[in-house]
Amino acid sequence: MVKITVSGHPGSGTSTLVNKLVQSNSWTSLNGGDVFRSEAKNRGMSLADFGELCKSDLQVDKELDNLLKEKMSGDNSIDIVESRLAGWWAYLLDIDCVRLWIDVSDEERAQRVVAREGGTVSQALEANAKRSAIDAARFSQLYDILPQDLEAYTHVVDAGEMSIDEVFSAVTVILEDFN
Fold it and tell me: How far is the C-alpha of 153 from the C-alpha of 131, rounded, in Å?
């Protein structure tokens, strides 16, 4: 069964955290963002354009979400599932696991995106805001869910001023206490 879901807005550090958890524990993981980016690339589309497609063709988004839910609840489920709705899926599927939301300010997330992908902070702020607005409209229309609504999460880590090692340590304690 899934041990932990990791969710947060783009640039919040979810992928970095998942990579450390995988390396430290030899766990398997599924990254919903990678699934999303892979499908956008397969279609020759930017993330923003693919987000717009998902908004206009709800079946595309539902297929991606159904893949995540299937991987989470199947007999050979993944240890860690990372996506903005993974915590919600675990909550709605009644999966007994840590459902983690990583909270980081818009400014800090933009700085992290710039460090990872280049560009300027103002460009990253604008791109993040646009992507979040598109995703929020889509998730609301599809499921009446906003990822950042905390009802679904067992734990929230405010990672804005924490190093990745501090976040990893905090999450390790959460996992130990949960079991």
Answer: 22
